[in-house]
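Friendly challenge for the regulars: who can give me the structure tokens for this chain first? No prize, just bragging rights.
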Amino acid sequence: MWLSFWRTIDRFSLLHFKYVTNELRRIKVVHEFNKDVVIELLQSIVEIVTYGDRHDPAIFECFMEYQVLGEFVRILKNSRNASLEAPLLQYLSIMIQNMDTDNAVFYCLSNGYINTIITHQFEFERGDLASYYVSFLRAVSSKLNTDTLCLLVKVHEDAIVSFPLYTEAIKFAYHKENMIQTAIRAITLNIYNVGDDMLYQFVTAHPVANYFSDLVLTIHKRCLHLDGIPDTGDTCTNDHTGKLQLECDTIMDDLYYLKDILSVGEPRLSKMVTQNLISFLVLPIMLHTLYSDQSNGLTLSPITSLYVLTCLVQVVEGKDMVNFVASSVIHASLSSVMLELLEEVTDVGICPTSSTCEKDYHQPEILDDFRKSYLFGWMKEYIPSNSRFLKSNDFDAQKERSGLLGYIFSDDHGLLLTALMLLLVLAESKDTEFKLATMIGVSRATTGMQQTNHLSPSTMMDQSIFLKHMPEILNALLNILASQPPPSVLIQWHTGWFLRKMLFFHKNQLSDVSSHLFNVSFERSCKSLQEELNGSWFDHIPDIFKTEWTSCKNALEEPTQSKDPFLLMELGGQKHSSSGNGGDITPALPWQRMINAVKVLVLHLQLKPFIFGGDPFENPLVNFKTNSLAVSGRKYVSDLSSASFGSEIALGSGIPCKISFSKVGSRDIFVLPVARGMSGKLFLVEKHPLHSKRGVVIAIAPLAGLNPKADEKHRTWLHLQIREFEPVIPLGKNKRDTQASSSSIDEQDGRWTLGFSDANACEAARLSICEEISRQRSCVETLLAPFLLQQCSPDHTK
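First reply, four minutes later:
Bragging rights claimed.
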């Protein structure tokens, strides 16, 4: 019978559950000496309850009978050791998350235990307690529905007067840890999706509703911080771009969160979010960016403002929001009539018989059109009567303002492109009203969509901002490409994208000025690439050309709505970045300079058919295969094109010389330059000990970039410049960037010096190397000649 005492205890049995529960009930106060025991008991209880909820109903019945959750609350209140709080919250989170049955969920949320824990005065300054607390709140919110909500709220006269889960959660909305911020947003969305009328009344009523205004004001502060990132002129640095990207990502996350709230589909919730967006973000941006040319130090720059508006249209979307922005953009170019009407809206409300409306304006049709616009309607509904946005001296109602069109024809390339981007996004948005979309662009008017507002297609197209100003827009874009010094490659590619968009709708013949601007830019791009044929990376131009052709084609065909809004900030940051090498490189980076030259030429080649007509080019090098010197595993090769390190090759025309390596000292070798088509290598060969006419390859370097020069003081020395790396070109993959890998060339240190027996032998070696380089370069020039000779003659522009 003694064996029964050694029988293993079933830790998931009802008997064991009662045992650990009784042990917990015996503990009156938690202190340093029994803390670990209490934590083990809490862990055991949670494990058994979770198991019992799924497999043994008797366990959970005992859990309710013993009021175990109340014991958790008692332990929390009577604890003298704050280190117990984190594990207690953790175990409760695990238990609630893993409850499957409705009875278990209802019991845990009833009796006020959860609310008592939520409102407990935790010391969040200690360690990572806040993360455990927020995880607990998230676990509770995951069990909310229309049936369980009543267990966590206090109701008085058909109205929720207390909801600790929500009010305590939003206190952590701006916690310094991003994971906690994300968890809070998940909690609030869980609550918003419950679908209870009293709940929506509670969250949209003061003071709880301040959460929404605080959220929008925080976005505005982030925009100001983004605007304050210093522009040192060296905007292409990773540090500057990284800071911009980080801030932009944060703003985008905030906007996506607002979109999720709007997606709940509850009218009161949607109106609350939209009202705050309009009042505290969109309207101030519109007024200061589009209607005022002054700044009070608290306003955003035009670049940042246009970025935020574009993000709103692309991310937040929504018919009302998009059309409000579209209407604002259109009416931004009106006279002071609009500002007087806006003042009337915000000061005294809308009155059809007001004195302002009875004035005899010079543009009655514009005034009437504005009264019918989304902007006017939204001002009536969403802007409070005590608004002071339009009571500032910053707005001179007597001054004409050109609005967004002023940016389109700005000398600042970044402003021009970002303004165009906003217009395109609005014109092509599925939420933009047909009339507004057509007044901005022409995409809707040419797609056969149903016409509205009793306007004919021709009338609406005549109103189009794009069509009305198309010649000026095209010239402005072409001026960017033809500017001197040339802008960065980033700006040129984006400019090309805009050009293709505009030319798609432009049916008229280009002016001579436009054609000349393109020719100037095209010829300059050809010249830049011709210069690179004399550079140290000319042998890689065909491969880069082939790769960049596909990348450029995909970039030009990219839909507007899929464009990353961050490019607006990139364009704005590139305004000081310009140089003869493409704006974002230095002479110390010949590899990147060569790539940029190829990118710019490829861009012009693909734009040419849209400029002068004709079918777009297919990839001219689609069937091009590099004729490289292959790597061979054979010990002896007769074809030098397959030779590699360690191969045995015929010495042939190799020139004897000496070289000194830091690791192995001076060695007698033969130098053998070889060009095969567009590929070329320089072999350093050591004579074979057993075969007098053979040698073993001990080092290989590319011919391109060698730049052989005889030493001025020692005419028997020949200096060779070795490229420091060999690139990895992802041929056949759609990648814009070509990476550089560590060198695969053996025994190289960036420069070799070869010693010859006399000056004549040194000169002969130099001439031999130059001859092979010229042969290799000639093959590359022959391949690229058709593209470099495609400059448009004056006849093409007639």
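The CA atoms of residues 535 and 705 lie 7 Å apart. The longest strand covers residues 665-676. Your move, everyone else.
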